[in-house]
Design goal:
- The structure is a homodimer.
- By secondary structure, chain A is of the alpha+beta class.
- Chain A contains eight helices and 26 strands.
- In chain A, the strands form seven sheets. In chain A, strands 6, 7, 8, 13, 14, 16, 17 and 22 form an eight-stranded mixed β-sheet that branches.
- Chains A, B: This is fumarylacetoacetase.
- Chains A, B: It is an enzyme of class 3 (hydrolase).
- Chains A, B: Keywords: Calcium, Hydrolase, Magnesium, Metal-binding, Phenylalanine catabolism, Tyrosine catabolism.
- Chains A, B: One of its GO terms (biological process) is L-phenylalanine catabolic process.
């Protein structure tokens, strides 16, 4: 299985080796889809026409608003569906779709003509803080370089609960948030539009099979519960954050909008990009120890597009720059018995690499406004301006095969 | 409308003036119910038999697992349903149910014979920190009495996002959580069962009508979005909390289990208990100003029951001991455009009154273990032990009418 009978450009994120899952909005309804090259594949019709027989799929599983019921079936089912889709579309396929123009026209749609919708109903969203360089950078700015990391940081993957209601699909414009800020230490707080609007470059992983309250997931079986990943922009209002976050953490600074890429790339598709993580010193507690590689070499980039369409790449990072990996995060999250549900999302936290061009937020890139970014139109950016569109992309490449996430794109409109 | 033709004991929380809403588990299905005295009222059959005609209710709205679709209809509909139920069951009712034994037997069930289920699917759960005495007590213990409140505390209702997956119905036993603790400052953290397990006495309010991303709810229209309230036990593992919570807030210390009372008492039912709040100094920003009374005089109590059934009341607090009220909390939560959805829950934070017998957590009641509580069996409690059941109750009384929440009850089992 190397090539599809659907033409796929060399720079495409979606060769037959990928087979991601998403949801297409279809009039008043929805259908689940996969993607090869520039085609969205309607899985509801693929099932209806009999191409997915023998896979233990409930009728209508692909005609729902979200993928939750499908991914809850667990890897033994979802992996077989992904493999069947690969078999149907591979160059030498004997499944018959290639030669059936009527079926092909119903099942394959040009992605330019489909509207993607949020792929899962996210029950709970957790954000970690697992990139050492990011935590160090923030610690340097807000505390001091000698004590940049908090004492707990290397003992546990620090995380906090975020808001799921305001997680939206790529392409959803949003208004600059308003809120309390305290620009002057000796004066009362003021209210108004956020002045320090920032992106955060993150990867999010989606829970497939859930657990019951009281169950703990281990680093060994964590992969059974991770359905797949997306690129995630966790917008942050730095001025709101600074004033509100002590002692209980970020709240209004983070819950006004977060953007998710539309295609969930399965953990299995990312297998070729597994790589080793950093050595962890001090030694972690036994429940956080893991075997094998659970970091992923996935290139990430962030661009700012101005209203006139001029674009500047402001960050080139990589998902491998994580101190804590996903299996550690999930083991930690559930070690107290906290249950997870299909569709829950957990995000990495801002992913910053060791070099300054690899930082994952404007706070770090422009270092609190002291190193503004020069834009192609001659303007500069310390944070994100009204009218700017932030575009994030992610992909891995190995042995000539590129597997990616497409993009997550969001435009900032002025405050209302 | 003063009395029901159903007998209601004087000490009942559920006279005809209450008419709360809940969900009953019924074999493999569910139905929505209200309650008068010791009877659960099956709203699905009440509708099916034609008693709720003319109220614009979709067919089958009361046969779902959760109340979300019903409460999403908004106050103009849900208030009329509540009023119709009152009319059907009032002493002088002409609706005919009283005389129809066949219908009565289908619709009215002894609460001893029904199993309550979580009333709403909670999308997002937010916990505030709005009792001044509680914030002050915690500040005294962890910082110092001269700077007990953080600088932001009187300018905004401090809150943070919690976990909704682990919110369970009253009566759900749970195991003592395990996690990292750092008992000795100069030694590495250790892993094991939580040693400092605590309750937090809270009230939770449930969102009815939702909003779109970008919309802000004001203090003036907040009541349109608050469907009703429950008593809420926000269990906390103090040793886990201390080690993990800086800088991003509570996480595993709070998300292992939280218990909700089964009956949602509507905001309208609590109207008689409205009372004024404290004067707020410093003056709040305009979006937090409010008109009228939005605090509620609701008596709250917490008891610890030992395995042998001996009970000790350890706290007698009141919902009126809030600095920030619900309309301020909701206005703050959405002022940045954060959307809310039907079924979202927001909780008060621990409600501590000014006197030590009014404190809402063991941390405060036993003052970090320095003032242990004496139990009837001669043992003492600094925190909650395995085998203990914590029972919380809430009710208001005015003009001879008592309206209450029943109880929220949870037993702690040993760590697995």
């Amino acid at each position: 299985m190397n090539k599809s009978w659907i033409a796929v450009a060399a720079e495409s994120d979606f060769p037959i080796q990928n087979i991601p899952f998403g949801i297409v909005k279809n009039g008043n309804g929805w259908y689940a889809a996969s993607r090869i090259g520039e085609y969205a594949i309607n899985l509801a019709i693929l099932q209806e026409k009999g191409y997915l027989k023998g896979l233990s799929l409930p009728d209508g599983i692909f005609e729902r608003q979200y993928l939750n019921d499908f991914i809850a079936l667990g890897k033994p089912v979802t992996n077989k569906v992904r493999e069947r889709i690969q078999r149907i579309f591979e160059e030498e396929s004997k499944d018959g779709l290639r030669g059936n123009t009527v079926h092909r026209n119903k099942i394959m749609k040009d992605v330019k003509n489909v509207t993607m919708s949020l792929p899962v109903q996210i029950g709970d969203y957790t954000d970690f803080y697992s990139s050492e360089q990011h935590a160090f950078n923030v610690g340097c700015m807000f505390r001091d370089p000698d004590n940049a990391l908090m004492p707990n940081w290397k003992h546990l993957p620090v995380g906090y609960h975020g808001r799921s209601s305001s997680i939206v699909i790529s392409g959803t414009d949003f208004h600059r948030p308003k809120g309390q800020q305290k620009p002057n230490a000796n004066e009362p707080p003021v209210f108004g539009p956020c002045k320090l609007l920032d992106f955060e470059l993150e990867m999010g992983f989606i829970i497939g099979k859930g657990t019951e309250l009281g169950d703990a997931i281990t680093t060994t079986n964590a992969s059974d519960h991770i359905f797949g990943l997306c690129v995630f922009n966790d917008w942050s209002a730095r001025d709101l954050q600074k004033w509100e976050y002590v002692p209980l953490g970020p709240f209004l600074a983070k819950n006004f909008a977060s953007h998710l890429s539309p295609w969930i790339v399965t953990l299995e598709a990312l297998e070729p990009f597994k790589t080793s993580g950093p050595s962890q010193d001090p030694k972690v507690l036994p429940y956080l120890e893991y075997k094998g590689d659970h970091h992923y070499d996935i290139e990430l980039e962030v661009a700012i597009e101005t209203e006139k369409g001029e674009s500047k790449t402001v960050s080139q990072s990589n998902f491998k720059y994580m101190y804590w990996n996903m299996v550690q995060q999930l083991a930690h999250h559930t070690v107290n018995g906290c249950n997870v549900r299909p569709g829950d999302m957990m995000a990495s936290g801002t992913i910053s690499g060791p070099e300054s061009h690899q930082y994952g937020s404007m706070l770090e890139i422009a270092w609190q406004g002291t190193k503004p970014v020069q834009m192609p139109d001659g303007t500069e950016r310390k944070f994100i301006q009204d009218g700017d569109t932030v575009v994030m992309k992610g992909f891995g490449t190995k042995d000539g095969v590129r597997i990616g996430f497409g993009e997550v794109r969001a435009k900032v409109l002025p405050s209302t």
